[in-house]
Amino acid sequence: MSDRIQPDRALGEQVSKVFDYFLTLPSEVTWVWSMRWNMTRIIFTVSRYFAFVAGSLTAYITIVAAEVLIIIRVYAFWERNRRLLLILLAYGVADLFQFIYLIAFETVLLVLMTLRKYLTYRRVKSRFIELVYTQSALYTFFAVVGSVFNVICIGAAVNIVSRHLFSEADKSQAAYSNLGDK
């Protein structure tokens, strides 16, 4: 039963955060969104939205850890087959390249958006243009940050798994060789 309580508690906390968010969103739109960016607004925004980000990061780290565990189990079931391990790790590396491409693409989008904004619209006083630019720039920036985080997590996972499993395989091979010498 205690195994079931922890996930239910975490889910309850997330539901409570989402409920509070939607309950107070109209007030936030009225009082905060029209404010100029200053230290108070930054602190409010971080405190308001960091809980969602932290929950997502925790979930992502859990997923990566589970995938690493499955790789280790498959490797063990296949009697520590190094070729299979290399194939599995290659998939992880391919995942890295996917996110590196995404980082490059999102960065190009952000640069193009910023260039157009400042070359064409810098003197235009339009709340709509400011809103579209700001929201797009923030979204793209956080997409880049998320992709960088993915690269770090996947890269670390591939590195840890490969170093650990290859060192274990070398130890097993050495022990097996020593048995034959006796």
From TrEMBL:
The keyword Transmembrane applies. The chain crosses the membrane at residues 49-76, 96-115, 136-161. InterPro entries: DUF6533. Keywords: Membrane, Transmembrane, Transmembrane helix. Residues 18-53 form the DUF6533 domain. It comes from the Eukaryota. This is DUF6533 domain-containing protein. It comes from Coniophora puteana (strain RWD-64-598).
